[in-house]
Amino acid sequence: MSDEKFVLAIDEGTTSARAIIFNHAGQIMAVGQQEFEQIFPRAGWVEHDPIEIWEAVRDVVGLALTKANINRHQLAAAGITNQRETAVVWDKNTGEPVYNAIVWQDTRTQKICNELAGDKGADRYKEICGLGLSTYFSGPKVKWILDNVEGARARAEAGDLLFGNMDTWVLWNLTGGINGGVHITDPTNASRTMLMDVRKLQWDDSMCEVMGIPKSMLPEIKSSSEIYGYGRKNGLLIDTPISGILGDQQAATFGQACFQKGMAKNTYGTGCFMLMNTGEEAIFSENGLLTTVCYKIGDQPTVYALEGSIAVAGSLVQWLRDNLKMFETAPQIEALANTVEDNGGAYFVPAFSGLFAPYWRPDARGALVGLTRYVNRGHIARAVLESTAFQTREVLEAMNADSGVPLTELRVDGGMTANETLMQFQADQVNVPVVRPVVAETTALGADYAAGIAVGLWEGENDVTDNWAEDKRWEPKMDKNERERLFRNWKKAVTKTFDWVDDDVKE
User: Fold this and answer.
1) How confident is the model at residue 2 (pLDDT cuts 50, 70, 90)?
2) Which of 33, 190, 419, 479 has most Cβ atoms within 10 angstroms of its Cβ?
């Protein structure tokens, strides 16, 4: 058996669970992946079955180890990255969830958010937690479960229920569940709950009280890189140190080696998420961005980020595939988009669950505008791709305004970066080079590094920077007047989605 050591990253995403094994050079050795069910009980509601996710995690870990032809003895550590704001509440005595996990895209908590905002508005608690009141974050989701699931509040107050984002649920089960599972999260995930003081990295009593959430439910907040516990005795990762947790977007920022203040990355997944490193200072946005923890490595100072969150990106391509049956596989959208030279005047604003950054309009709903008889499937496919690039530009402009430092290049990752047409249009819209690294799985890679640093496999950020390598760069080519004309039309299209949800709209 080789002495070479590897790190396993568990990437618990919105549509699938993956396990990826990396070597010391940050190269992928093997991948296991499994999709899980998206549950839509009502309009605006999105749920996952936590038990199904835990089973999927176990399956993909086994698959990755088998493909890499190694066992747990060759793993130096395992790290976790996850869809961040998706909330699960479970019974610590039985391990059974009291309700399905409520996914970050879910909008059922809008009424709760409105009530909490009162006449002081959505930014009422921003100074404490760095976030505006939104259905996006996990605190209001937990409140909804306690308010609506029979007996849940009484069980919570009796100390029987635990809460966590999906990192916490996976870690608790990995380390033994009802048999000694550790109940822990990291500051990147905790900063997405609305319950943590973003400066102190502690649960805030006033926020817990406002939300009506007993503190006994909350996981302990540890750093993003330290040993939290070890793999359970009856699992595949027996005694393996579980030693890294980063929310998916923070993990991608780490994996992209965005360690210098002012560096930014954009991840193209289900949604689109841009993070800019703001150093050891929490900067509070004036332009619709979120203040979030970027990472905290062991006992080193906390590093913060500004984040622009776009709710719908890759999921719009899925929607075209699954709901409209316009193609069989997601990558086919590029060939379809390339059957036409431009969008034919059509603009698609995918406000399926309202608009996130920089608008934060829960009342918005999706719209396809500018339609004429001339528009065909190719134009719609192109409009879908372009919507992601336009939304990214809006966020980037907000970041430039907040940071006062214009971005010089945009590092990109995620599944949609394989789409050359989109990446070129993205460079054209943001008017700076768009750069894709060799290892595009930067989310898993970030979790991998955080876990490996904790056990001494890597020394720290310098090793990550040394491993990072450029794969492809797209330079802006579009004429300035055309670029601005397209963007003005996009802005006009966005306004057509506002104020849709009112008393006449059934959700």
Assistant:
1) low
2) 190
Is position 143 within any domain? Answer: no
- Tell me, yes or no, whether 496 lies in a domain: no
Cβ-based neighbour number of residue 207 at 10 Å? 18
Confidence band for 311, pLDDT divided at 50, 70 and 90: confident
Residues 15, 44, 50, 307, CA torsion sign: positive
Inter-helix orientation angle 377-403/314-322, to 10°:
160
- Per the CB < 8 A criterion, the answer to whether 265 and 442 are in contact is yes
**Integer Cα distance of 30 and 75 in angstroms:** 13
CATH number at residue 387: 3.30.420.40
pLDDT tens, position by position, 149-183: 999 999 999 999 999 999 999 999 999 999 999 99
Secondary element (H or E) of residue 277? strand 272-279
Q: Roughly what angle, to the nearest 10 degrees, separates helices 480-495 and 377-403? A: 100
**Parent domain of 340:** 314-393
Q: Is residue 263 part of a domain?
A: no
Query: Does residue 135 form part of some domain?
Result: no
Whole-angstrom Cα distance, residue 407 to residue 434? 11
Backbone phi, then psi, for 101, in 5-degree steps?
-65, 135
**Could you give the CA distance from residue 156 to residue 395 in angstroms, rounded to a whole number?**
38
pLDDT in the model for residue 344: 96
Evaluate the omega torsion of the peptide bond into residue 358 and state whether it is cis, within 30 degrees of 0.
yes
| Domain total in the chain | 1
Provide the edge-to-edge strand list for the sheet that holds 161-165. Answer: 47-48, 101-102, 87-91, 161-165
Closest CA to 75 of 142, 153, 174, 160: 174
Q: In what order do the strands lie in the sheet with 410-413?
A: 290-295, 303-310, 272-279, 264-268, 410-413, 434-437, 470-474
Beta carbons of 51 and 97 less than 8 angstroms apart: yes
Amino acid sitting at position 339: T
Closest of 213, 184, 208 to residue 196, by C-alpha: 208
**Residues paired with residue 367 on neighbouring β-strands, in sequence order:** 349
Q: Is the pLDDT of residue 501 over 90?
A: no
Measured from the Cβ of residue 367, the count of other Cβ atoms closer than 10 Å reads 18
Bridge partners of 267, per DSSP, are 273, 413
- Mean local confidence (pLDDT), 6-28: 93
Structure tokens given for 368: 């396809």
Number of H helices, E strands in the chain: 16, 23
Please classify residue 189 by burial: count the beta carbons closer than 10 Å to its beta carbon, then call 0-12 exposed, 13-18 middle and 19+ buried: buried
Say which range, 161-165, 203-207, 396-400, has the weakest mean pLDDT: 396-400
